[in-house]
Specification:
With about 270 residues, the chain is an all-alpha fold. Helix content is about 75%, strand content about 0%.
Length: about 270
């Protein structure tokens, strides 16, 4: 962690120009809005931070904090759609907490580029799972929305633990992966799925945020501007998404997932 901290605080930009501040605000707003509907906001916010001169590892940390606050805002807009039994919610919450912490520490020990070879396959699989989740569910009742067997709940919790480790480590496309998981578990209400995704994503990124702050890896001058934009975009995006037909939202999620998959294959191979 010490080695990462030294690299994180070196070469800090002396100042943030007004033009860059405006640019980061809108990048944060767009990223927050995208995360509130489908996921993938990191692929807007992270490159924006790099463009303004923030090194890669601090950019990843600063981006995580900005979109974490955006998740809180979008979760507030979806709060009326969240109706998950405590028996189901508590294991998923615990898995998100433990997995997010494990993923954040994993990032401190290994370079993020080692994951880039696997990432496009992960986003491809997640997009296909989301697109065909209803057929895979076979019309059965949702594990999340109804009483679940112990075995089904254990499997769901293990799946969420894996998603949380990935989210704490890198996080790009985590929303798509979670939506895919919920689809295969039988959930059909995209707004309820986004509500649960927002809560679990908030927990995962929250643990990572604490880790990054302790490691001294955050560029606060850039981050605060992006945090404000992320809050605005997260709430507004969720608010308007609730007014749209669910079919449109599903098509948008698939489009975002497909775009991310193509992008990662292009970057990695």
């Amino acid at each position: 962690m010490r080695r990462w901290r030294r690299s994180a605080v070196s070469d800090t930009p002396d100042s943030l120009t007004l033009a860059f501040a405006i640019f980061l605000f809108f990048a944060g707003a767009l990223g927050g809005a995208l995360n509130s509907v489908a996921g993938g906001g990191s692929f807007i916010a992270f490159p924006a931070l790099l463009f303004t001169g923030v090194p890669p590892i601090p950019a990843n940390a600063t981006n995580t904090i900005a979109l974490w606050t955006a998740a809180a805002a979008s979760g507030g807009a979806y709060r009326k759609r969240l109706d998950v039994p405590r028996r189901v919610m508590m294991p998923l919450f615990a898995a998100s907490l433990i997995g997010g912490l494990a993923g954040a520490f994993l990032l401190l020990k290994t370079p993020a580029h080692t994951f880039m070879r696997v990432l496009p396959w992960l986003t491809l699989g997640a997009t296909l799972l989301f697109a065909f989740g209803r057929k895979l569910a076979g019309g059965r009742k949702s594990v999340i929305e109804h009483e679940a067997s112990t075995a089904a709940l254990a499997g769901t919790t293990l799946f969420q633990l894996c998603v949380a480790v990935y989210g704490g480590y890198f996080g790009g496309g985590m929303g798509i992966v979670m939506l895919a998981m919920l689809a295969t578990l039988g959930m059909t209400d995209i707004h309820a799925m986004n509500a649960l995704k927002s809560v679990l994503g908030f927990v995962i990124n929250g643990v990572a945020v604490v880790t990054f702050i302790v490691a001294g890896a955050v560029y606060w001058k850039h981050g605060i501007v992006m945090i404000i934009g992320g809050i605005v975009g997260g709430y507004v995006g969720a608010h308007y998404a609730l007014k749209m037909p669910q079919k449109w939202i599903r098509m948008f999620v698939v489009l975002v997932g497909a775009s991310m998959t193509v992008y990662f294959f292009w970057k990695s191979y």
